[in-house]
Design a protein that fits this description.
Elements (H helix, E strand, L loop, with lengths): L7 E3 L2 E6 L2 E6 L10 H12 L7 E6 L24 H6 L2 H16 L7 E6 L2 E3 L1 H8 L2 E5 L3 E3 L14 H8 L1 H10 L3 E2 H6 L5 E3 L4 H14 L2 H14 L4 H20 L4
Parallel strand pairs: 3-4, 4-5, 5-7, 6-8, 7-10
Antiparallel strand pairs: 1-2, 2-3, 8-9
Helix pairs in contact: 1-3, 5-6, 9-10
């Protein structure tokens, strides 16, 4: 496949678009794709930059690791150039700290919006913020060398980049608590058996597996996928009867659309 000119390429993040398929790539393998506020802003910008034609977004990473988590430089007194260190942030008032963390979280939230389906292709280490970034996607395809770990609690922190909600939904409360509180590694076989990953494949087959899954998603009518995703995402917040009503309303919209009848 011919190389594509990037829509965005900055701060360790590259976005390319091929019609209905977008690819977001973490591009700092020398640092195992460690994360920083600049990278988070670039990820959020990638989400805002998606053309309306995009239906599937693949998140991948260069190198041996998907992402080794937060760059530890954030915890040094000097922090990153042009950025307040986390120590400086901790000295601020509650409203300022809350607003800053909310801004960071924007890099992790747009992957689940209803008009796209996102796939994380994960190899090697996906630690802390790397684990949470993979959890931000709708689907995860992992290589057989994957190692997920939520190390925040071990460092005296909590996972705060939106990973706790999808983790709990996927593996249940008891296992989510154990994974977070111990910081242990979750390997490929367990990630599939617990529902954390959709499929595990040998590392040299990861790109092909993701490509096949993306093609299968793109084969279905877009509006039906959007409606189905919205139904499934909302189900956990609805009662059984509310979900039945939501299904009826969604199906009515689809039938009218297929029949060419307006609302």
């Amino acid at each position: 496949m011919a190389s594509l000119d990037p829509v965005l390429d900055k701060d360790g993040v590259r976005l390319t678009v091929d019609d209905s398929l977008a690819t977001v790539t973490l591009t700092n393998p020398a640092k195992r794709n460690a994360q920083s506020p600049a990278l988070w802003r670039a990820l959020a910008e990638a989400g805002r930059s998606l053309p309306g034609s995009v239906r599937v977004v693949v998140l991948r990473a260069e190198g041996k690791s998907f992402s080794a988590g937060l760059d530890r430089q954030a915890f040094t007194p000097e922090g990153f150039d042009g950025e307040p260190s986390f120590i400086d942030l901790a000295r601020g008032d509650d409203a300022e700290l809350d607003a800053t963390i909310a801004e960071y979280q924007e890099a992790f939230t747009w992957w689940r919006r209803n008009d796209v389906v996102s796939i994380a292709a994960v190899q090697g280490h996906a630690i802390g913020a790397g684990f949470q970034l993979a959890l931000g996607c709708d689907l995860r395809v992992v290589a057989d060398d994957v190692q997920f770990a939520m190390r925040e609690t071990s460092l005296g922190l909590v996972p705060d980049l939106t990973g706790t909600h999808p983790l709990l939904s996927l593996v249940g409360y008891a296992r989510a608590l154990e994974i977070c509180a111990t910081g242990r590694a979750v390997l490929a076989e367990e990630s599939v058996s617990t529902g954390l990953a959709n499929i595990a494949v040998p590392l040299d087959q990861l790109d092909d597996a993701v490509r096949d899954l993306a093609a299968a998603l793109l084969a279905a009518p877009r509006d039906a996928v959007i409606e189905t995703k919205a139904l499934l995402r909302g189900a956990q917040d609805r009662t059984y009867e509310e979900q039945r009503a939501a299904e009826r309303a969604a199906q009515a919209r689809r039938l009218r659309d297929l029949a060419g009848i307006g609302e």
